[in-house]
Amino acid sequence: MATDTAVTTDVQVEAPIPDQQNRVKTVWRKLLQNRWAAVGIVIITLQVIMAVFAPLLTSYDPTAQDLSVKERPPGSEGHWLGTDEFGRDLWSRILYGARISLIVGISSVLLGLIGGVLMGLLAGYYRWLDGPFMRLMDLMFAFPGILLAMLIIAMLGTSLVNVVIAISVWSIPSCARIVRGSVLSLKNQEFVLALRSNGASDIRILFKHILPNCTAPIIVFGTMRMATAILSTSALSFLGLGAQPPTPEWGAMIAAGRDFMWTSPHMTIVPGIAIMLVVFAFNVVGDGLRDALDPNMEVR
Amino acid sequence: MAGLIVRRLFQLIPLLLGISFIVFISLHLAPGDPASMIGGPTATREDLASIREDLGLNDPLFTQYFRYISGVVQGDLGYSYQTKQSVTEAIMIRFPNTFNLAIASIIVATVIGVGAGMISAIKQNTSLDALSTIGALAGISIPNFWLGSVLILLFAVNWQWFPAAGVTQPPWTLQGMKELILPAITLGTGSAALIARMTRSAVLEVIRQDYIRTARAKGVKEKSVILLHCMRNAMIPVITVIGLNFGFLLGGTIITEQVFAINGVGRLMIQAIANRDYTMVQGAVLLVATLFVLVNLLVDILYALIDPRIRYE
After folding, report:
1. Nearest CB neighbour to B247, from listed A144, A158, A269
2. DSSP code of A86?
3. How high is the ipTM of this complex?
């Protein structure tokens, strides 16, 4: 990656970022050649379409109750996925649930990445910060993720916003370790030494030159983390610690459907399949990205 | 070896102190006044002041922490603000259920994971390998709270093979085992998938080594090559994954206990969070995190026992 350092006489030192457009194209092509990753991309695209165009894909309000059609099975007239115990259309709840899972997933992963990347960059670059930051990360690693999330929710209270905060805090240590590792291997490379000798500021070196060279592992981590974030959000909502009724969140829908499992199993099964497909998609795309971004890997 | 164990044990002390401090401080920062929770809505200002004085809440934070930690090392985790019950007692009553569930799940995960991973590697690029790979991908993606609900629907409600909820008998009785099977599958599936993936890649790496080829060339039966020569070496990274997963399963019991209404530490914690019973949350989190760290330490030691190279690093 970081090999073809360009040092010119007019003190312009550039980090060795390969031709970005070509790189993106190559990665994309490799990703599509991986059949599991291709399936994952289709599922994620469908989720995005469902989330963005939810109001156009259903005429029902996901929270509007109609007790005259409660607990209708899938295939019922006007409700192809059936209805729940309050007569709410399950298809519209799944659509709006896709929106929630995507928003919560993206925001928690982004927040986690921002925190993790910052800590990783600083810990990797400044030796004096490495010890304290990494010991703090070790301490956070001492908690199983879901436990750490629950501790934060116990402190902040139950809500989707607090779930986002909890999951992003949970993501920070892993991300920080990955970025720190990359920074440690990059900071003594010639292009960084050249930049430093030319008087470039630390901020410029870190954010303009080192960070772009760490993007591959960050992208893979972020994609895989989306799966964890969506799964954890639904798990916490299932436990009653995340989304609260009547929010159409998939985990909360499973929790509500459990009381009617004997009579209307579709209320539990449908949102479960939705979660499984989306988590599966992010996992396989993450796997595919890791292979596509690794020059040593052959495409399966 | 003894040196490694002593070194690791010493490293554990600051980590455990750190965990206890994080748990203490995070719930100390939580909104709500413990004195009002204990005193209730009828408590007067004087009552609240007296409760605060009794609990030592007026003391500096570090004094409170050292009082808390000295209680913890003596096995005293305080009293519940809500039920006035001893936190240690409440946890100890429920802990065996959580521990049994975690043990049962790791057994399920290991049997399924190692078995599927081995078959997948030995039958590489066959339909069995593809099936195992798809199974592993699905296993990682299935939400365990949903899997538990589906298993209850199929095996407890439809076919009535296993009870739908609760653990009432010890795990060594037939009824106890039946009660644990569905929760153990629910909790163990994700770990089984990870173990299967790790076993597959470890076996594939070892199976290509020269000494395996030599064993085959000498005419050793394929079964012996796989079980005696290959598995022994392939198991080193697999054991690490199994050990680390045991720690994660301890955390995962929280959800499974809720699904199967098992009276364990996880369920106690969820109820405590809902009731804002901070001392109970504190005790439960501290216990699970400490166990998690101890299990990781045991994995480290076990790893060094299996692979002598680790001891000399």
Report:
1. A144
2. T
3. 0.85
